[in-house]
Protein 1
Amino acid sequence: VRDIASEVANILSIDKSEQETLLPSGANTILYSRTQWAITYLKKAGLLQSIQRGVQSITKEGKEFLEKYPTGFRVNQLKQIPIFINFYQSIRSKEISVSTILPEENAILSPDELLAETYITLRRNLAAEVLERVRAMSPSAFERLVVELLVRMGYGGSFKDAGRTTRLTNDEGIDGVIKEDKLGLDSIYLQAKRWKEGNVGRPEIQKFVGALAGQGAKKGVFITTSTFTKEAREYKPMNDTKIVLLDGEELADLMIDNNLGVSVHYSYEIKRMDNDYFEEI
C-alpha cells in the first residue's frame, strides 16, 4: 500500500507536507488511508486482486474498466458493477447516519477519516457543553475544580494531600496551591478566573506574577473560562518565573482527557487484519 500511495503522490504531484499529513488518530497518513480504501473498493469490484501478501495485481476486468475510463473514475462508476453494489450496500446499511453532524463535502473522506471527523465533532460539542457548565459554577467551586483537574493530571497525588484552595484575606490573588509532585518538593500556585465574558489581559498576568513573587514562588498556572489577549500570551516575566496560561477551550479539553465532569457514553474497538496469524497457519 505504501508503494502504491507513493506512486499516487508522484502522479498527482502531491507535495511532501500533504503526503505526511496524519489522520486525527495519528495512526496513519491521510494519503495511506485513502489509498488503502481505494484498493479495498477496487478489489471488491473485481478490478484488483491480491496475488500474495501486500501485492496487488490488476485483473482482466480491471484492464477493461480502465479502457472504458482512461482518465479516471469515481465510486458512482464502480456502482455499475453488480458485485461492488452488493458490497457497497452492505457497508452503507451498517453505517451510523452522520448527515446531521458532518457537511456534505465530507462524503469524499475515507471511512477512517469519517470516523475521526465524527469523533472530533462530537468532542467539540461536548467541550462546549462542559465549558458552559463550568462558567455557571460558583467561584469557589471553580477553584476546587481547577485543583482537582491538576491532581488528575498527576500533580501531587490525592486531592486531600496534594492541593488546597486559598480564600484568605492575605492570599494576594493566589486561588490555589498544589504540590508539583507527590513528595511536595515544589509547589505550583494557581489563579482561576471564572469569566463568562471579556478576555484576560496582560495586566492580570502581571498581577499574578507579582503575587507569585510575594509568595517566593517561581511556578504558576493561570486558568480562565474566557480567553487571553495576544499581549497576555506574549508576556514573559523578567525573572525565572514560569507561567502557563490555560483558556476555556483548553480547560474543557483537559477535563475531557482526564474524565473530570464527563463519563464514557459508549466506545468502539477498531480492529484490523492480523496477517502474521494467517501466515503461521
Protein 2
Amino acid sequence: MQKALGFLLLFLVQIALGQNVDLSGEALFFKNEPIQIFKIENALTKQKTLIAEEYILADGSYQFKFNLDHAEELIIKIEMREIRIKIHPNSSLKINFFPIKYADNQRNPLKYEVLYHSVPPNTAVDSIYQRIEIDFANLQLNNTPKGNLNSKYDSFFSKSDSTYNDYIINDSLFNNYYTYLKAEAYLQTDVSKQKLIKHYILAKPILYGDPSYLRFFKFLMNTRLNNLIAKNGQAFQKVKDDYQIYNSFMDFAKTDVLLQNEEIRSLAILLYINGASSNHNLTKEQKASILNQISNFCAYPLQKEAALFLQSHKKYLKPNAEAPHFKLLDKNGNEFSLESFKGHPVYLGFIHSQSGVCQRDLKVIETLKKKYKKVKFLMVITDRDSIHLVNLPPESQNLKYLFLNNEYEVLEKYQIWSYPVYFLLNSQGYFIQAPAKSPSEMFEFFAHEFVKKSKRKSYEIISD
C-alpha cells in the first residue's frame, strides 16, 4: 500500500513539474465555447497535435496548464480561427481575446493581447520581441514617402541588430522571427522582390520546420508563379494539358531565373497548389494530379512525405464526390441529417441572416422553390446567436432552415469561410456543383435539369 502511494505521489509530482506553462485569459465574446492549443508537428503540411482543450466559462475566463520542453510557436484555436503565439517553458502569461466586428466571417483573425506575468530567465521571450514590433510600428506611423523607407528601415534594423545581438546569436527562435520581421518589412519598400528572394531564400537553406520562413517563402513564390503564368499563358496551357503535369510544371517554372534550384522549385509548386492563390490557374483535378505525382515521383523526401499526407487528408469538394454528412437542429429542436433529404436534388446553402447578399439570394430562392418543387432548398443558418428566422422567407414544403449552433466542424468539412456559399447535390447526395452558382444564376440550369418533361406523345400521321 505504501509502495503504491509512493508511486502515486511521484506521479503527481511529475505531473505538477510537467505543467510548466500557466496560460489564462478572458474571451467573453466566445463564452461557453471550446478553446484548444495545438503543437505544430509539421510546418510544411500544417499538421498539428492537440495538447490541451478547455471550455471558456460563462464569465469569459479560461485557464490552461501544460508542459513545454522548449520555446515554440503554438496554435490557439477558437471556433475555426487560429492564432500563432510563441510560448516559452517556465512562463506564466495571459492572452485576452476581444470582440470582432464581423465575427461570423470565419476568415477574420482574432483580436488579442499577450501579457506575461513571469518569464523564464536568460531567454529571448515574447515581451522582448514584441518591443521590437512596437518600435517598428511606431516607426511606420510616420508616413514617409516610399522611396525613403529603405534607408529608414536599414537604420532601424541596424540599431536593433546591435541592441539585441545576444538574443539574435543565442536564441534561434528569436533569430528566425526577427529575420522574417525584417524580410516582411522590406516587402513594403521599393526593394525588389527579386532581391528579397536572393537574400532571404536563395542565400539560406530551406527551413522546413520554421513556419515564419515558410509563410514568407510561400508569399514570394506564389507571387512569382502567378506572374510567370500570367506572362506565359500559352506555354502554361501546354503544361496543364500534359499528363505529366508536375514534371512539366517544374520545367515551366525553371524558365524563371530565380527558380533554377530544383528543391526550391519543387517546394514552391507544392505550397502553390495547396493554397487558394492557384485557384484561378488550376482546377481541383489538376491540383490533385500534381499532388499525386509529387507523392510518387518527387526527388525530395520532405516534399514527397508532405504530398502523401496532404493527399490522404485533403478533401476536395468536387462534382461527383459524396457530400460530407452532418446533423443539425431545426427551429423546433428536431434533428435533421443531410441524408434526410436523399431522394431529392438538394440546393444547399450556408448563409447568415443579417447579410444583405444572403437576404437578396433568399428572395430569388423563394421564386425558385415555387417553380421547381422537386428540388429541396436546404439553408444552414450560421449566425452565432440567432435561432430565429429573421429577415428570411418562411419555411415551406421544399424550403428548410437548419441552425449551425456552433457546430463548426460542418463549416470545416465544407471549407466555408464567408457567406453565402452554395452547393448542388443530386438525389443520392453527390455533388453536381461544388460550389454551386448563386440562386440568380441557377434559373437556366434548373430549367434544363428539373423542368417537368411533357408526357404528351407525338403520333405520326400516315395517309393513304
